[in-house]
Amino acid sequence: MKKTGLFLLTASLPFALAACGSDESGPSIESQPLSDDDSELEEAAWYDELGYTSFEMEVEYEYGEYDVSYDYNNGDPQAEISDSRGDEEREVEDEEALLELGQVLPDLDVTPQSNELQLMNESVNNFQLDDNYQEMQIDVEFDEAEAIQAEDSTQG
Predict the structure, then answer these.
(1) Which of 13, 57, 88, 104 is the most exposed place for a label (fewest CB within 10 A)?
(2) Nearest CA to 50 among 112, 96, 93?
(3) Residue 154's closest CA among 136, 134, 129, 138?
(4) What is the C-alpha separation between 52 and 72, in angstroms, rounded?
(5) Pairing state of beta strands 90-93 and 135-141?
(6) Does the pTM exceed 0.85?
(7) CB-count exposure of residue 47 (10 Å: 0-12, 13-18, 19+)
(8) Where does the UniProt annotation place the signal sequence (predicted)?
């Protein structure tokens, strides 16, 4: 008797599971909305439209430093931001840094024809930096053109 019951249970299990999966009233996988992670990836596509592949900036102040590093890396972008100008040192990397730089780098009007002064002014304005720095170095690399560099040392 136990064997017959076990056989019937085993034989009917696939049909019961199939019936659960064919319920048309519940949401299917295809009808579920995108998660927040998917929308963040779509928003982060700003780096595919930049006219340059690398942006490095180091700014030294009497009271700290501000450093930005961005590299397109053949469609696998990497970014870092380091800021020791305030009361606390701040380090931001990966997705968080890309999201933050996505608010600045697309608006940076930099081309291979930009001169040092234009590059520094664009960077100070777009990153909202104090212009009383002691030293600033910027390197921008382009895919199909020569890199441009700017360096300035002042007495802030």
Answers:
(1) 88
(2) 112
(3) 134
(4) 8
(5) unpaired
(6) no
(7) buried
(8) 1-18
54 closest CA partner among 36, 69, 64, 40: 69
Amino acid at residue number 83 = D
Q: How far apart are CA 148 and CA 106, in angstroms?
A: 17
**What is the Cβ-side half-sphere exposure of residue 117, based on CA atoms within 13 angstroms?**
0
- Full DSSP string of 43-59: HGGGGGG-S-SEEEEEE
End-to-end CA distance of the chain: 94
User: Is residue 105 helix, strand or coil?
Assistant: helix
In a structure prediction context, what are the per-residue pLDDT tens digits for the chain, which is 156 residues long? 544 444 444 444 444 444 444 444 433 333 334 444 444 445 447 888 898 999 999 999 999 999 999 999 988 999 999 999 988 899 999 999 999 999 999 999 999 999 999 999 999 999 999 999 999 999 999 988 899 999 999 745
How many CB atoms within 10 Å of residue 136? 22
SS3 70: strand
Q: Which two tokens stand for residue 2?
A: 């136990």
